[in-house]
Structures are given as C-alpha cells and as structure tokens.
Amino acid sequence: QICNQHNAEAPNLEEAFHRMALPEPNLDHDISWFLLPPYWAKVVVALISFLCFANSYDGDFVFDDSEAIINNKDLRAETPLGDLWHHDFWGSKLSSNTSHKSYRPLTVLTFRINYLFAGGFYPVGFHVINIILHCTISVLMVDVFSILLGGLQFTNKGRRLNLAPKTSLLAALLFAAHPVHTECVAGIVGRADLLCALFFLLSFLGYCKAFRENKEGHNFSVFWVLVSVLLGAIAMLCKEQGITILGLNAVFDALVINKLNVLEFIQKLLRKDKLVENTGVLRKGLLFRMTLLMSGGAGILYIRWRIMGTGPPAFTEVDNPASFADSLFVRAINYNYYYSLNAWLLLCPWWLCFDWSMGCIPLIKSVSDWRIIALAALWFCLIGLICQALCSEDSYKRRILTLGLGFLIIPFLPASNLFFRVGFVVAERVIYLPSIGYCILFTYGFSLLSKQAKKKKILAVAVLGILLINVMRCALRSSQWRSEEQLFRSALSVCPLNAKVHYNVGKNLADKGNQSAAIKYYREAVRLNPKYVHAMNNLGNILKERNELQEAEELLSLAVQIQPDFAAAWMNLGIVQNSLRRFEEAEQSYWTAIKHRKKYPDCYYNLGRLYADLNRHIDALNAWRNATVLKPEHSLAWNNMIILLDNTGNLAQAEAVGREALELIPNDHSLMFSLANVLGKSQKYKESEALFLKAIKANPNAASYHGNLAVLYHRWGNLDLAKKHYEVSLKLDPMAPGTKENYNLLRRKLEQLQKKGG
C-alpha cells in the first residue's frame, strides 16, 4: 500500500544513538511510497532485479565473450593459476605491446571456476552467476541508499538504523531495474563490472562500520578503515573503477561523519583562518582517516603500475576518434559530448547499443554543430547542482546533492579520457557504478516534487510507471543479448553509421552460411569505414570462396597496404594468389604472414599446400610438420602428411606419422581413414579393417569410407563384404570416382565364381 507514514524503524526513546544529536530533515516525510520492513524491502528488490534479467540465463556467448572466455587460455586447467596474475583480462601477457592492460585477475578466476564446474564452455552457468551477482548488489543497495539518504546512526547496541526506508527502497528499485545495466548482467564479460560493484559496496559498508562503536563522536575503528581499503583493492582487481571507492569513502566521511561545509572550509582555508581547527577535522580524526585512505590508494596504484609493466595500452583511432584529434578544442568538445550521452543513457535508456565506436557518433568539429546544445544542457544542470551542493543554506540538501554528484562523477573518472586514453567512445557497462549517483539525485528530486505536490499519489503512480517501463525494457534488452544475431541487428537502428555493427551482422550471417547477405553488410562496413581492414579481410575470404578472385585480391592487397602487419590478410592474399597460379607471390605472402605472426599454424598448412602443388614434397612436409608442432591437433596438416607420404610410396613413414597423429587426436575419423588406407596397402588387413570400421562408426555417411573398405575386402578376398560396402558407397554417392568400376569388376568376378561353382 502507498503510505505517508513516518519511518517504521524509527528508534525507541529508550535507545541511545551517538550520531546527530538533533534530528535532520528526512526525505521519507515528503514522499508517498511503499513502507516495508527491511527484510521484505530486500526481497522485493531481489525479485525485481531477478525478473529484469532472468530471461538472459540461457543466452549464448556473445560479442566480447568469445575473446574473454572461449579463446582465453587462462580459463583452462592446464594453464598455471599463477599466470592469471601476469596476464590481462583477455589472456595476453601484460608486458606485451598488444595488451589492453586491463588487469582483472579475480574476474578471470571466477570465469575459470565457472568453466571447471561446468566441465566446459556452457554459458548457462556463467549467466546464472551474473544474475545472482546483480541481485546481490541490488539488495546491498538498500543498505547503501539508507545510509546515503538517511544518514549513519547506530543504537547503543551497535545496530544501524534505517532512517529512510521508503526512499532507500525506491532508489534501490531504480538501480535494480535500470536498463543500462543489461550489458553488465546479460553480457558475461560484464562480470568484471558486477564483481567490482560488489566489493565497491562492501568497502563502503565496511567503512561505515568503522564508526559503529563511536560513543562520543571522536572514536573509530582503524581495523574497519583498513578492511575498507583492502576491499577497495579487491574491487580494483575485478575492474579498474574499484579504486574510486576510496575517494568516495573520504567524501562520505567529510560530509556525513564530520558534517563538513565544503565551501565554508575552503573559504577559511584560503583566509588561513585559525578557526579551521574548530571545524572538527582534526578532533574527529578525519585527517588521520584521510591519510590511511590516501596511503592505501597510492600503494594500490603503485603496485598496479608496477604490474602493468610497460606504458598505457595502444588503442586505434576507430576505438576513440576524439582522443586522436589534433585540436585540443575538438577533443574537449567531443569528450564533453560523450559525457552528455552517458547522462542521457541514465535519464532515457531507450537507445542502447553493444558498441558505440566506428562512426556511430561523428566528431563535432565546429561550434555550429547543433549537438553543442547537449553540452550546454549538461553543464547547465551540473553547475546548477554543484552551486546548490556548495552554497545552499540547507545542510541536508548540501549533503545529499554532494553525495549524489560524488557517486555519479567519481566512479566515471577512469572512463572520462581525462587521465588516459580509453578504448571506447561510450560504453554502457562503465555507468553501472555512476548510476548509484543518478538514483540518489532522482530520488531527491522526487521528494522535492512530492513536497510541493498536492496529489502525492499521482506522482507515486508516475514513478511506478517509470519502474514498470524500465523492467519491461530490461527484459526486452536482455532477450536481445541472448544471441549475437539479435544483439547485432538491434544495433542497426541505434547506430546505422557504425561500421562495426554492419561488420558483426555480416560475420554472424557468414558463420551461418548466408554468404550473399553477409557480402552486403561487409560492403556497407567498408563503405562507412574505408580503412576497416577486418571487414576487407572477411569480404575477401567470401569472394575467394565464390571464385571471385580478382576482387578478393584487390581487397586483401588494400588491407595489407593499410595495415602491413595484418598476418591473416597476408595469408588469405597468399591463398588467392595460389588460386590464380601466381605461386611466387603466394609464397612471399605466406612468409610475410609468418614474419608478422611467428606462431601461425594455419599459414604453415597453406604454405605446405602450395609446396605440394609445386611438387616440392620435402618443403611441403616440413611446412605441415611446423603446423603440427605449433598446433598438435591440426588434423588437416597431419592428414596431408599421411596422404603425401602414401602417394609417394613412403608407406612406412606414412604409417609412423599416422600413428603419431592418432595418439594426439584419437577420435579423428579422417585420420583413421587415411591410416587405414596406408595399412591396407601394407597388407595389414586386420588392423586396416578395424580402423575403417571405427571411422565409419564415427561418420557413417562418408561414401569414400565405405568405398575404400570395400576395396580392402576386395583385395583381402572377402567378396561378400566388399559387395555390401560398394553398394552402401554408391547409395551415398552414385558418382563416387572409381567405385562403380570396382563394383562392376567385383560383380563379374562373383558371376564367374558362381558359374564355376555351378
């Protein structure tokens, strides 16, 4: 029921509490909202947060999940656990120049545990953990918002009082059901943001516990301050934003614990007024706690810097075009425009996109661009809020607005481009923590409106409507994150100028075999970004498969001209040149690819095919051997070695290679088939038969398997079995080369035997 009653958990008169001798204004007095006992408030928040994202539980691995999870060797049991502390989030060495320097070992550790418990890459377990984490964080937000909105007060028994049960519930519901959180919850890679947020909140709550035993206003627990610093360090080991909680703890301490008037304090400090000491900064231990927080933060940052090894990560212009602009004015204007877009996503999270780079947001290059209005609106609001936070005579208003702005801005600073270049334009995941500040400001604004409104229930119904719309938007958006096809297509209407969106739609279509549609999207990606080498490479690959070799060569040549170290494009160019019978150029392209990527088994495999076509058998065998050394499970390279040795009469060597290959890849039916052929020629019929039958069991519809087994039986003299397998082979492939002739020979032989027998 919607109610206007006072806090149901207000302290009894007999209970003494040591914080705030005089009662402060309470937002709960002014709003018409649900009043629930603490337990049920948390149950409701957990339920709503679960309903918002529950339909993502059976989603696939999508977008960045492939690189961070499926292709990340740090998740596999054979990788030593110690490597996690020297690798970045994507599994690359931090010392590498190509590393993104995103150091999140604890997040990767949770992925590894997920992988081990599931027994492989099954996304359900990963998604379930993400949903549970968001529900847990949303429940913790009830306590966090009760402190931020209602203040920190304890009974003489050390029990914290919730002085804002209605507003803390509203703010927690707004947080739990905010659609901008979908990327963090429904995208498995968002685990980093969720874990960071969990320890971020635990650090804040731990810091609040430092004042639980404070009986006279000047005692505090050093232990809990240090625990808070430790939890902040753990948050940073989950994602870099976690370190910002130490700054927020300092802001909270100054405003809530010490009731510092920031503007007044600055004025006294500038005047070198001796009355500064009377503000209570030194008396209440604020300076000592600030020293602990700053020392802890500096130590954490120093260790992080030492671990990172080399300089900052190297991003490209397409990742963050504004940061590459020559003009400081252009950079500043566009950074501020990006901030306004982030603010808009918090206010109106309707247009959401998995990627905002590559032309999605064209650069603002002059003040005549109408988008300047967005910057003006952002700073008009921010300056207004900052002035109220600093200059208002109402201490409660100053505190709420400063905390709201602090939680909105401080966690966003690592993504702001102010201290270092980031690898994105806008990223919905990075406003998971800043949305806490938004929820505080929204709730405070709602209380001010309620205070002025005559019909408070209408306002409450409007806010309920916003919550309902957000829940439905979360459900819709999380369903889009269930598969790459839905996710990529949903972005076409939001960012039609984003070349990466078209590229990803095309790649998804190509993976499903729809090459004609994929070509259309790849061409659009190249049109939008004429330097998009990955789109050129993939388009060239498809054209190569469709035998449109001339255009394929042009595209791949352009790709390596734009990015000379693009190894995959060099290899694909070599394949095209090989098909055009320009063998010398193809060989040069293959070696260039290997020069730029030393461990490139597929390139060695293709180089071996080139040498085989040129009858350079020794070179071909060496190339394929290199491929299998780099990638022991490279079945095609093993097969080609066996077949080449078989065709050149080196049966003993072919048999040895075949046995070596099957030891490494025991369930590969194509290797069984190739080795069975060699054994049959060596008259090891029994062993050859066993391998043929095993290969057929694994792949019963392969006409050549039945045909060659029939030949074995034909040689061996098992004519009835030979006849049976010839017939199966012809049934599967009536045009199988040689099979019909062998079958006719067998039939004539059987007829002759019947005549002799008759």
TrEMBL record:
Q: Which SMART domains match?
A: TPR (SM00028)
Specify the pathway.
Answer: Protein modification; protein glycosylation
Q: Supply the EC number(s).
A: 2.4.1.109
TPR repeat residue intervals? 499-532, 533-566, 601-634, 703-736
Q: Where in the cell is it found?
A: Endoplasmic reticulum; Membrane
InterPro entries recorded: O-mannosyl-transferase_TMTC (IPR052346), TMTC_DUF1736 (IPR013618), TPR-like_helical_dom_sf (IPR011990), TPR_rpt (IPR019734)
**Is Coiled coil there in the keyword field?**
no
User: Domain DUF1736, which positions?
Assistant: 311-383
- Pfam families noted in UniProt: TMTC_DUF1736, TPR_16, TPR_19
Q: Which GO terms describe its cellular component?
A: endoplasmic reticulum; membrane
Q: Report the principal subcellular site.
A: endoplasmic reticulum
- Keywords, comma-separated and alphabetical: Endoplasmic reticulum, Membrane, Repeat, TPR repeat, Transferase, Transmembrane, Transmembrane helix
Topology in the lipid bilayer: Multi-pass membrane protein
Q: Name one GO biological process term.
A: endoplasmic reticulum unfolded protein response
Which residue spans traverse the membrane? 39-57, 131-151, 188-208, 220-237, 243-266, 286-305, 372-391, 403-424, 430-449, 458-476
Kindly report, in one word, the top-level EC class recorded for this enzyme: transferase
Task: Recall the GO molecular function terms of this protein's record.
Answer: dolichyl-phosphate-mannose-protein mannosyltransferase activity
The text of the family note is: Belongs to the TMTC family.
Name this polypeptide is given = dolichyl-phosphate-mannose--protein mannosyltransferase
Organism per entry: Penelope pileata
**Gene label:** Tmtc4
